[in-house]
Amino acid sequence: MTETTTNPFDTDDDAFHEECGVFGVWNAPDASALTALGLHALQHRGQEASGIVSLGEKGFRSHKGLGLVGDIFGDARVIASLPGRAAVGHNRYATAGETALRNVQPLYADFAFGGFAVAHNGNLTNALALRRQLVRRGCLFQSSTDSEVFVHLIAISLYATVLDRLIDALKQVDGAYSLVALHDGALMGVRDPLGVRPLVLGRLGADQNNAWVLASETCALDIVGAEFVRDIEPGEIVVIDDTGVRSVKPFANTANRFCIFEYIYFARPDSVVEGTPVYDTRKRIGAELARESGVEADVIVPVPDSGVPAAMGYAQEAGIPFELGIIRNHYVGRTFIEPTDNIRHLGVKLKHSANRAAIEGKRIILVDDSIVRGTTSKKIVEMMRQAGAAEVHMRISSPPTTHSCFYGIDTPEREALMAANHSVEEMARIIGVDSLAFISLDGLYRALGRPGRDAKDPGYCDACFTGDYAIPLTDLVGHKEREPALLALNGV
């Protein structure tokens, strides 16, 4: 978990946070400018920090900072300081390691074979065990992020080529990862064998000869004018150089356990994820939710912004008018002012305001994507009642979140998850709604085009709902019996 400090006014503390976003460009004259644009499109995946490493005739150049992409790369002089036809970039929301400049990616190292930069979306579940082994071998860590493990494993590998060193490193790690990496000869993209985190390949227009793009989501391809080519497959490495793109598949066993929450919340609505438009999927989830848990009401009100598509689907299926009963203020940052005690309770009103004209005297159904701690939901319900709502019902477009994520999403410990400690009826009473319902797990899978959840082969990672962790949680459970074997493997 992060060691970040949140402002008491910051309602984002009661929400999931979107791990990280990665972007890479090969063979484009304005590679760093394109990367900055791509990171801007991926801002929703990480708002704490951003960085770009470029490769030009004079070698690698790097610029990183804490804050939003526009604040860090908005100055043309910064982009000019990152020349070259190749670049990789990263937006960070810390899931491992504190918020500090030393943890901002892409990470860069000078090896005997040349420079190497890597950006990582995900989380390694055996990073602490590997870190201990690497330290015993004399490796000096410069950050507290789990991603640095990749750098040291590559450094100590006995293989000759960069690709083989990378494969050697990948076969020693457990966890979820989508990587973009850059060295003197190529841009590389990697997904873990279960494909938990997204990564897509795109190609720039005809005027860009053999110019390629890697990105976490297709919305980042759109902003730079790149054509979507395909998703990187689970367990695949794509190597992009001046001869084109080639695929390497070093893992014998791969499957698809793509993060189901990408469809519910994390991905931008205009992205296409694993061949499916996110916007359409969220509307189908909302429609399924309406079929499962309808209730008489006058208006459907989304909790902005993430609840909007599901609320639209719910309204269309239920035949109930859709209204913007909550207005969001998009200009409040993660830190605003330190509130005095007598105004601390205003909290959520910094980001959300009731649209009284749309809700006064009406029976409303609030549609949101999830309930984490429940504090924000409670405040929003109070705000609706203060604005004159006759009844307040709440419908959630995900099943109850009962388990923490260890694969790259910043979630509270289980003790802080409301659904892990209370029944739905208890949650409704605490939040203060007239009724509360979540989409069922099978209903969610139906909205994704399946007959229901197949316990033997779910096809998605849904551990936050089920506790079915497909990747070993080595660091969490302390697999002591495994560590000696790993030490021997690494020659310690």
TrEMBL record:
Q: Which PROSITE patterns match?
A: GATASE_TYPE_2 (PS51278)
Name any one Pfam family assigned in the record. Answer: GATase_6
Q: In which pathway does it act?
A: Purine metabolism; IMP biosynthesis via de novo pathway; N(1)-(5-phospho-D-ribosyl)glycinamide from 5-phospho-alpha-D-ribose 1-diphosphate: step 1/2
> What does the UniProt keyword field contain?
4Fe-4S, Glutamine amidotransferase, Glycosyltransferase, Iron, Iron-sulfur, Magnesium, Metal-binding, Purine biosynthesis, Transferase
Cofactor remark from the record: Binds 1 Mg(2+) ion per subunit.
Q: Which organism encodes this protein?
A: Roseomonas indoligenes
Keyword Hydrolase included in the entry's annotation? no
Q: Where along the chain is the active site annotated?
A: 20 (nucleophile)
Q: What is the lineage of its organism?
A: Bacteria, Pseudomonadati, Pseudomonadota, Alphaproteobacteria, Acetobacterales
Which residues does the UniProt record annotate as the domain Glutamine amidotransferase type-2? 20-243
The residues that the entry says bind Mg(2+) are: 306, 368-369
Cofactor(s) recorded for this entry are: Mg(2+); [4Fe-4S] cluster
Tell me what this protein is called. Amidophosphoribosyltransferase
Kind of enzyme, top EC level? transferase
Q: Which family does it belong to?
A: In the C-terminal section; belongs to the purine/pyrimidine phosphoribosyltransferase family.
Q: Which GO terms describe its biological process?
A: 'de novo' IMP biosynthetic process; purine nucleobase biosynthetic process
Entry-linked InterPro entries = GATase_2_dom, Ntn_hydrolases_N, PRTase-like, PRTase_dom, PurF, PurF_N
